[in-house]
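2024-03-11 09:14:02 INFO receiving multi-entity request
2024-03-11 09:14:02 INFO entity count = two
2024-03-11 09:14:03 INFO echoing inputs for audit
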Amino acid sequence: MQTMSSTDSITVDEGYDADNPAPVIEPPRARTGKTPKATRTNFELYGWLFMRLSGILLVVLVLGHLLIQLVLDGGVSKVSFAFVAGRWASPFWMAWDLIMLWLAMLHGANGLRTIINDYAQRDNTRFWLKMLLYTATVFTVLLGTLVIFTFDPNIT
Amino acid sequence: MPAGTLYRGREGMWSWVAHRVTGVLVFFFLFVHVLDTALVRVSPQAYDDTIAVYKTPLVAFMEYGLVAAVLFHALNGLRVVAVDFWNKGARYQKHMLYTVMGVWVVLMAGAAYPVLSHAFRELFGS
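2024-03-11 09:21:47 INFO inference complete, emitting structure
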């Protein structure tokens, strides 16, 4: 057919035809033999959802915290051991601070995990940066939790 | 220089950049803040001595910067939630960013006196 001629010339330019096919480019997210089975979960979906739900709660918890610590009653000037003891005498503020600690640390850790995955290109660098992140996060969350639960207003 | 797109170099991209930068800043502060608060388990003296650092003028300005980062991250985070869950969110993402910036300016103006006044009093006398 006459109309085929232009198509034919393109095929010749590329050097590919039915007998000499172009190399197959795998879709970027294709599952290959090397893909571990363990990644076949919805972890990233739950992470995405957690960021939004914890974020909404943190807007209330953190802005309330800033209002109490930095704005009301003379701002940061009034913060002292006695001030902390006064607030943690109430289970309400203990719960506030405990929930805020856990949500903020997990929200921040997951954010930094995303950033490490984005920018650290070598497998080893990415692995060790995340190990450092997880170690620091677990340490800080446990330390903060311990401090809230074992706080002693009569310590000397 | 590639041609502009709906996203690249525009409100969407820059709000994403600012969200990352403010998020990292706040997270690093959070580590320090849990550690300084943990000093209440050491002694009232150790805690009060460390908190005295927060009351110096230089750190007061850093606190104002922290408030700036937290407020942007919080307000823009609500915008991200709206873009993801509200069916008109993507259409109004620019309007919402300008709303975020407007509310941010108002709240920053409101926070200036409570957060910075003691620093000014210390620097320039009462």
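2024-03-11 09:21:48 INFO post-check: Residues 53 and 59 of chain B are 7 Å apart (CA to CA).
2024-03-11 09:21:48 INFO post-check: Chain B has one domain: 11-124.
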